[in-house]
């Protein structure tokens, strides 16, 4: 397959599986440029994976000849500037969640992407992990009935530091991906854990948990449990009311650790050459940022916070 789509990556947190695209004969993506503030580490990766251009300046990357698309994998605080620079340069953009650190910034990015025909894909790599996708598929198909409870949990090393609302973004995104839009939150933070209790628009509830444990006990991936009126998925086992009397089924999907970032890159690649519009909506990323902003408010006040969303496109906000 011809390597005719130039890709630049901002942030070496993208991972080795994405860096290895140049040796993948099934992909048209050619990783042509890498940007990271750690110049020494970036050069080492570039040499290992045969990436010809390395810089510490995102503007150099987005303006580099031969770059058709840009993947944004830097810190949350930097994503707005990096995404805006890439969009302004006319590039298609893949960005991790959350896409920005304020609702106002997220809305500005989505509006800018709309000006270029939907050129921003906001990706949570857990959505492409096979087990997560299978659970969500059951929920979306109605096999679990009306969703009444969704839970995510992940454990991280104690040295990871005190986390906040934005570290909950991937977990909360899985809650709303499976249970529907979130209308209110109540968040708590301690040295050993952070939690976000949420209520969905359908009246169901959810819980996202990040637990800090000794490094040797940290989990390899995230768990997703879903309970509905017609079935449930708990700890990788499925029971459906319509199969009453039969033993519960067990997922055979292997854990993908921190998710499948390469899966999101693959979908992004497919959209670059598709004749129709991209299958995603950057305003979904805005709605996630609105939830995270409400969680941040709840952390600061110690009180529940509402997340409001108009039916009009992109008018999600917290109050």
Overview of the molecule:
A hairpin with a 2-residue loop joins strand 12 and strand 13. The longest helix has 20 residues. This protein has 2 domains: 121 residues, Rossmann fold (3-Layer(aba) Sandwich), CATH 3.40.50.720; 154 residues, Dihydrodipicolinate Reductase, domain 2 (2-Layer Sandwich), CATH 3.30.360. The strands form 2 sheets. Strands 14-13-12-11-7-10-9-8-15-16 form a 10-stranded mixed beta sheet, covered by helices on one side. It has a 6-stranded parallel beta sheet with strand order 3-2-1-4-5-6, sandwiched between helices. With 319 residues, the protein is an alpha/beta fold.
Summarize it.
With 319 residues, this protein is an alpha/beta fold. The protein has helices at residues 16-19, 39-49, 58-62, 76-88, 103-115, 130-140, 169-179, 261-272, 282-301, and strands spanning 5-10, 29-35, 53-55, 69-72, 92-96, 120-123, 147-157, 182-189, 193-200, 205-213, 223-228, 231-234, 237-240, 249-250, 305-309, 316-318. Helix content is 31%, strand content 28%.
Salient structural properties:
31% helix; 2 domains; six-stranded parallel sheet; 9 helices; Dihydrodipicolinate Reductase, domain 2; alpha/beta; 319 residues; Rossmann fold
Discrete helix count: 9
Mean pLDDT over the residues: 88
Major sheet: arrangement of strands: 14-13-12-11-7-10-9-8-15-16
How is the biggest beta sheet arranged? 10 strands, mixed
Total beta-strand segments: 16
Number of domains: 2
- CATH architecture field of the largest domain: 2-Layer Sandwich
- Looking at the structure, what is the overall shape? globular
Give the class-level CATH name of the largest domain. Answer: Alpha Beta
**CATH topology assignment of the largest domain:** Dihydrodipicolinate Reductase, domain 2
Helix content: 25-40%
What is the H-and-E element order?
EHEHEHEHEHEHEHEEEEEEEHHEE
């Amino acid at each position: 397959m011809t390597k005719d789509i130039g890709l630049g990556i901002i942030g070496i947190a993208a991972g080795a599986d994405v860096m290895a695209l140049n040796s993948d004969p099934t992909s048209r993506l050619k990783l042509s440029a890498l940007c990271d503030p750690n110049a020494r580490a970036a050069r080492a990766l570039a040499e290992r994976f045969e990436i010809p251009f390395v810089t510490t300046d995102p503007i150099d990357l987005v303006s580099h000849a031969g770059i058709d698309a840009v993947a944004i994998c830097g810190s949350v605080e930097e994503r707005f500037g990096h995404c805006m620079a890439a969009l302004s340069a006319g590039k298609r953009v893949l960005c991790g969640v959350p896409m920005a650190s304020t609702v106002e910034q997220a809305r500005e990015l989505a509006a800018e992407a709309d000006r270029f025909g939907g050129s921003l894909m906001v990706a949570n790599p857990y959505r492409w992990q096979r087990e997560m996708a299978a659970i969500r598929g059951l929920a979306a198909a109605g096999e679990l009935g009306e969703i009444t409870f969704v839970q995510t949990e992940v454990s991280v090393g104690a040295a990871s530091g005190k986390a906040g609302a934005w570290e909950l973004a991937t977990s909360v995104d899985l809650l709303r991906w499976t249970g529907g839009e979130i209308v209110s939150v109540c968040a708590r933070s301690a040295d050993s854990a952070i939690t976000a209790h949420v209520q969905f628009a359908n009246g169901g509830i959810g819980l996202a948990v990040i637990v800090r444990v000794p490094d040797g006990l940290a989990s390899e991936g995230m768990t997703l449990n879903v309970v509905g009126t017609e079935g449930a998925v708990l700890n990788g086992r499925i029971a459906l009311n319509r199969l009453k009397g039969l033993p519960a089924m067990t997922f055979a999907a292997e854990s993908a650790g921190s998710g499948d970032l390469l899966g999101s890159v693959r979908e992004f690649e497919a959209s670059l050459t598709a004749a129709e519009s991209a299958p995603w909506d950057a305003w979904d990323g805005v709605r996630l940022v609105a939830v995270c902003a409400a969680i941040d408010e709840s952390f600061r006040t110690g009180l529940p916070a509402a997340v409001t969303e108009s039916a009009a496109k992109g008018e999600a906000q917290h109050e």
